Amino acid sequence: MDTSWMATGNCATHPPDTFFPSDGVGVEIARRICEGCPVQERCLEYALRNRVDHGVWGGASERQRRRILKARRQAVSALAG
Ligand code: SF4
User: Fold this and answer.
1) Dihedral of the CA atoms 52, 57, 61, 63 (nearest 10)?
2) Separation of CA 80 and ligand 1 centre (Å)
């Protein structure tokens, strides 16, 4: 899997710990860094496809990614009828 895009993200110039916050304030700080990141969509899809549980990826917290995955599952179920 090609992960070379990771080096081009806004987070490349921040300590990795920033993206594994322990509270909501930390999540917001990380999400702000993700805003406008040139690889934000790719990063989010990577985390969703690989079921990455921890950290902020693509501007989305763990909870937000769980919601996105749930919504996608529901959409697929609805299509399947
Ligand atoms: S979206 Fe956020 S976590 Fe992902 S590469 Fe960009 S800055 Fe890093």
Assistant:
1) -30
2) 33
